[in-house]
## 1
Amino acid sequence: MSMYNPKKIESKWQKRWTKENFEVWHADDKSKKRKMYVMDMFPYPSGEGLHVGHVEGYTASDIMSRYYRMRGLNVLHPMGWDAFGLPAENYAIKKKIHPKIVVEKNVKNFTKQLRRLGFGYDWQREINTTDPEYYRWTQWIFLQLLKQGLAYEAEVPVNWCPSCKTVLANEEVINDKCDRCGTLVERKQLKQWVLKITAYAERLLEDLAVLDWPEKVKEMQKHWIGRSEGAELEFPVADSNLKIKVFTTRADTLPGATYLVLAPEHSLITTLGARIINQSSVKDYLEKAKHKSELERMAEAQTKTGVELKGITAINPYTQKEIPVWVSDYVLSSYGTGAIMSVPAHDERDFAFAKEFGLPVAQVVSEKKDQQELPELTEAYVGDGVMFNAGDLNGLPNHIAKDRIIELVGGKKRINYKLRDWIFSRQRYWGEPIPVIKCEKCGVVPVPEKDLPVLLPRVKNYQPTGEAESPLAAIKKWVNVKCPTCEGPAKRETNTMPQWAGSCWYYLRYLDISNKEEMVDKAKEKYWMPVDVYIGGVEHAVLHLLYARFWHKVLFDIGAVSTKEPFQKLVNQGLILGPDGQKMSKSRGNVVNPDEMIEKFGADSLRLYEMFMGPLEDAKPWQTDGIVGLYRFLTRIYNLVIGFKKAKEKLADSDKSVALDRLLHKTIKKVTEDIENFRFNTAISAMMILLNEMEKNKSQLSVVSCQLLVKLLAPFAPHLAQELWEQLGNETLLDNEVWPEFDEKLTEDSEVELIIQVNGRLRDKVLVSKVITQKEAEELVLEREKVKEHLGKKKPKKIIFVPGRLINIVI
RNA sequence: GCCCUCGUGGUGAAAUUGGCAGACACGCCAGCUUUAGGAGCUGGUUCCGCAAGGAGUAGAGGUUCAAAUCCUCUCGAGGGCACCA
């Protein structure tokens, strides 16, 4: 008997499913059918090649798209390359090959790997973010942001990675380390392009409600946006008409504000400089704070530092008391007003600061109601309570006092967000040039849209300079241009865009990849958007997914797209851990190579195993032993179908088993529902159960049952399914076949096993009609030997009956 | 420190969402098959017990006729945020 030979079968079908002219996977833009847009997070084509983690997500989306195609939907399932940015560039530097060549080579390798896995992409829509015809539109979107006042240049404190030699976005800094290379970031003050994502904070938060996303991701975005409601209050500076504005969420504690603290960068320190008595020690402190490394700041998180601005006092607008003003770097210049009112009694940080410097602590909110005197606080009391030591407000619940106080002192209610604007310049070569020209006379001039794309010039030296400029600055020919407005001498912006730029809108370009007039054709956009299913890792929860939503909303506002949100449903595949249960990494030596697995077991086995491992969203350890089971499963299907084909001549087609027929319909139902709910592991186990039964009843198989099994298998193991389909005498492609329907009646058994419990414990089981009534069941059950045994002489107190399932006799 | 998620056999996991715990698979054990191949087939496999039976879903308590599932606390793992006033 011939053996299941995945290598032979898979290469046979992969040759037919050619990238160039395989029309079945090509989505039709003019179809009248219902559309289904299934998209993966596209990879950056690293030199490492495809990872088993890629295989997991990509298999899931491949199953979805093959399934929906068989359901008669017009499926769009594209693939592309996120090839700009640090990963590609760092790799190029390491290997001393130009990034462009590296990317081309890696794309070729990735393509080969994806094809070996049998993924059914619409290759006619392949995109590459480094293609000038692609990034022309990335630059175009930047110009729209500029036009809308959403892109601006500013001198801002930035995170600088000394190893990658570039500025990083807030989102790229994890625990004060560079997300890419793990180096501790430095703080620098640099002139940068910044995108005003904060203008969209409220909408980015609000619209999370309409998204069908994992709660975890929504929660992370919510926290990252960090909305907090509070008030802005003004403290007059004594002997001056200046005022210090503070932001607080606890205006109710204003009576307990015993001093103010300014951030080191606060403008008032310079404005009032002359009045400061201890100028030299203040200067010292500011200087230290400026040069403090992130490491020192982290170490100091517990013990607070600061210095008093002697000679300057402010008036607490509620108590009218004169209070001191301090400077400390625990106050952030970039949040709120850069100044706070300090209430040591009701804020942990303020408490620590007051203890450090012996400043007064005044408790004004008390947990208990009728207290005459309060014991000395050993820690800040941050809970709710009633007002105390607060004049007219005494005895009032603090949340009511809050609004009163804001009104009384003329404060303004305000909402603040933790979200910061997106620092958009990178001092690196391998990115989209920012399409801006700087003219001595005209200032910042956008490159006219007709001159796009601004091509990234080929250079010999693409290593980062380590300065505030990218390597592009060295190319005089490219940098020096005529100003588009006045024709005078001008220079190009030499910074490039961050790696996230290209992925902010790629889902739109898949819809219309060769359009030279527009980013995307309106009709096509309207037909395909939004993306129905988006599958990728959770690591992009606050990076790519937030940025892309932001750009999409801007595009919506200027009428370029028709939906509020880009990705309707998001599914996160969980990490595949190494066999040791640890995250896969080269240094641990626990990386599993998908190529090796394909070599040994075939792509179908690998696909199936990764889907069978466990729930898609869960992190789960790789076990090479486990893939053997799926290989065996496929072998058995192969043997069953081929064996059936050989025996068919001798068998009559009519001797079908009713039980098998029922199981078949149950399985169709289970697999169908499981695919739609991304429960691939249980879908596969249902097919295994079916196969076990079919093997036991070989003599009762029919062509129809074999064909149904093959169709169910098709989205999961497309090569083997197609091969067996052909072996069964079909010339068609399974992609064009219709997904099997199930007969609801056949999925329901007329008889069920009734569980018999006494006092909640399982004592017996009995096969009964599904529609048995409580009365019938009681009569039947009370006559059973086992039940009588357990009842003894006692009478049932109560009988619980769950129709078609269970009966519980309580005694 | 704060927030979120999760703890089920030797392993990956399943459990119609409050109704038979451990489906399906890996591994292991026994047997069969001249069988040297990560082969196939049959049976067994949560724990204690010869059995009847009992115990059992990290631990303790609670709600319920009934809890892996709901509630409270404790412990443990993973992830996110981290001076955001």
## 2
Amino acid sequence: FKPAPAKNGKGTYTILMPPPNVTGKLHMGHALDHTVQDVLVRFKRMQGFETLWVPGQDHAGIATQAKVEEKIFKEEGKTKHDLGREEFLKRVWAWKEEHGDHIIEQIKKLGDSCDWDYFTFTMDEIPHKAVNKFFVDMYNEGLIYQDNYIINWDPKLQSAISDAEVDHEEVQGNFYHIHYKVKDSNALLEVATTRPETLFGDTAVAVNPNDDRFEHLIGKKAIVPICNREVTIVADTHVDMEKGTGCLKVTPGHDFNDYEIGKRHELEIMNILNKDGTLNDNAEAVKGLTAKEARKKTVELLEELGQLVKVEAHTHQVGHSQRSGEIVEPMVSKQWFLNTKEMADTSVKEVENGNMTFFPKGWENTYFSYQKNPRPWCISRQLWWGHQIPVYECAECGHQWASEETPHVCPTCDSTAFKQDSDVLDTWFSSGLFPLNTLGWPDEEAMKEKGFDKFYPTSTLVTGFDIIFFWVARMMMMCNKATGKSPFDHVYIHAIVRDKDGVKMSKSLGNVIDPLDIISKYGCDALRFTLAVSSGYNRNINLDPEKVEGYRNFVNKVWNAFRFIYPYLENANDKGFEVDDLHHHERWILAELNDVTKKVTESFEEYRFDDGCNAIYAFVYDKFCSWFIELSKGILNSENQNLKAQRANVFKHCFKEIMKLLHPVTPFISEEIWGYLKTEDEDLLISQEYPVYKEELNFSEDVYNMERFIEITSSIRNLRSQANIKPKEEIEVRFFTDDEELAKYFFKSRGYFKELARVKSGKIKDKSIERPTKSIMRATPHTEIFVPLEGVIDIHEYIEKLNNDLKKAEKEFEKVEKKLKNPKFIENAPDEVVEEVKGKAQGFEEKMKSIQNSLEGLS
RNA sequence: GGGCGUUUAGCUCAGCUGGGAGAGCGCUACCCUUACAAGGUAGAUGUCGGCGGUUCGAUCCCGUCAACGCCCACCA
């Protein structure tokens, strides 16, 4: 799994594994994500690239801290504050040591061929250094700053969270219409709000400056009900005259819009909430209540005062914390921010100018939409588990500075009485540097050792669309800022795995499919093949275990095919084969193998795993097993040692190539079978060279003939089935064709018709000869096939069948004939298309004639 | 409110720059045929969401309508 020097003039190929959380448990999403990556890595490795797949793990600030807090409270009845920061962190590390490996062990069951020596935990020393370096650089550039700003507050976690961590969900609420009195006037302002309890934090009422209903009141004072505070009536264009009552209460401390209005009008910001989301002293009348309780109480008080005009039902979007599920409270608070304006610009440009490409391309839009209007990223979290913010403040002189290393004294006054900021950084701040820190950045020695210059920028990032902003965009921004280069060339966004009905899997719905269960039931290769064959440029994969079963059967088919061939391989002499000596069936299968090689390679290179896997499946199942093996049985069981040896050589060659083609997708079975096929000086399959398309193996004439052979054989079988002829019974068949070349080929293939369709004897004549009676027939565009009527068949049914065939042929004929009669078609269509259509018309006509003749003979 | 996507066989989906509609699963019939019944052989099934346009020709390009889904947005 370690990078080996590149071969065949190839370069390096690097993938970073999206690091699973320490608290994580393996799910289908991982299985898909890792299957795709492992397919790519094994494919590129075999192609000769110096290939590195870097695994890692994320410390997952909030999730981990919450888990450990819960455990301690359950077992000891203590909170983290009872233990203190230092002791609590010790406990988290202990938990991590004990349980952190769980998901890693699960991942290994998927067959990931990543280099575990590169394993990086986001709280390791190097990532810590990276975080500190990046932070300090940004701090010194002024891009990281501390500010009082309105942020999303999670009252349950009691921490700020970023905009991206807020999900808006539809909630059934009410529109409360409230009367605000106007000072020195009898006028009443009707204000509509969904959150009456925030009126305690109102510091203005706003109307649109162009709204003549309220024009005369602008600049006057309104009186906030219950607390009777006087606030100014301001004019602001943000107010929508059509919406609500056209009159807006302004709560700059607890609403993002109002905050902006407040800034424009220099309004006072009033905080009415405690950290746990309850109302504080500033809302005397509802103090200590939760927001929900306070809302009820406020409405009651308003009713008593006669200032509640009406209540209307209203559905609206309310922000919920992705982490805790709690309703998020906008709150003004002192936090650390990263100004991402320029970084976002750069990361957008990098995609626009093609330095980084999305597959499928459509995801660009999503990526852009997140970054066109970036707001400052709130990076501080009021948690303990994570990278503590490397900013220090001196108690003596008040100096604040950022430092990569823990300082000994204050740089301005030499005092030792300084304190580090107690907040930690958003987990994504360290994940955003993952492409750098996994390769040793910023430690020069580590960078050298890990080959930073060789492996950075990485090649492909494989992930789901849900973290395009969280992770992809942040890596683009931060890594570009740090190095001037985008962290990857390609981003492949794969689908989301859903249940068979297209419903997202969730614990509560009980529709979760556990990859480990699937593996133990059907095998890892079957799961991998299913996921790969389901992955292209699609957005959803509806995973039905029956589908996995189907591909398990395919893996089994491969095994059985090998089991059949294996004993014959002792005839092989490992000399390979001379192209000139090849039997036409051998040329055919080699040409087909050559084709599928090309198709698979091209498909994998553009992340069309569906196309690639389908191509292998069809080749192995239909071409190789159904036809080549069947066609070979005669030779394999014959006494002709030369032919047997050559066929064994071809078999061995094909099977080895098939194992190589399959290896990226089904590494287990292919490596196992390879063990029986390889020569002594050949190494493991994983390090073999991937098959390459060769022009000289493109035997198109043999492919053309074989297609005819298959067509005729199937037709004979069809007739047999129609006449209820016993499978073992041998029959006489007569062919009529005017194509001399074809006739020769059929004659040459007579032995194979016998083996595959139980044809006892067959005469090949041209169409001028009288057709046999007491027979049933089938027509192709070039050949008529007659089988004597042996069993009992329903003559009416047979006539109906012929009529059906005739109708089909007529329909097809009419279609092409219509084209040919259209002078504009002849004039405008390319010559080759016209020729093609002419050929088809002729073929259909022949077929029609054949069937008509036969029908006439029957009547 | 803004944006994006999807609509093709019973189900899940593929159809690249326009030129005779495909796969897997499922279904039907017959078969323990000497690798494979987790199999074999044969077979049935589509107004390519509706309407209009461009074109010699449209599943594919343009317009429009409809249904479904997703994302973003400051909770009046």
